[in-house]
Amino acid sequence: MPEKNARLTLTKLRQRAGLTQQELASAIGVTQKTISIWEKGSVEPKLTFEQTKLLIEVLNCTLDELIAAIKHST
């Protein structure tokens, strides 16, 4: 992973996109509580390909950034 991704988290990606947890949850078809759990690192997201694609689009990030954010959130 590139060094610039070392500090990315799901929370930072969401905030960078200007979204609330509820807005992100609605965009990918999960609950706000699920987003909260993911951001706290309690559970690693189990995403479908479609959800992964939506997350990348909604968060306006690359796949590498998303992977780094998930890795650093858990």
Automatic annotation (TrEMBL):
Offer an example of a GO molecular function term for this protein. Answer: DNA binding
Cite a single Pfam family from the UniProt record: HTH_3
Cross-referenced InterPro entries: Cro/C1-type_HTH (IPR001387), Lambda_DNA-bd_dom_sf (IPR010982)
Q: What are the alphabetically sorted keywords of the record?
A: DNA-binding
**Residues covered by the HTH cro/C1-type domain:** 10-66
Q: Kindly indicate whether the keyword DNA-binding belongs to this entry.
A: yes
Q: Which PANTHER family match?
A: DNA-BIDING PHAGE PROTEIN (PTHR46558:SF4), TRACRIPTIONAL REGULATORY PROTEIN-RELATED-RELATED (PTHR46558)
Which protein, by its recorded name, is this?
Answer: HTH cro/C1-type domain-containing protein
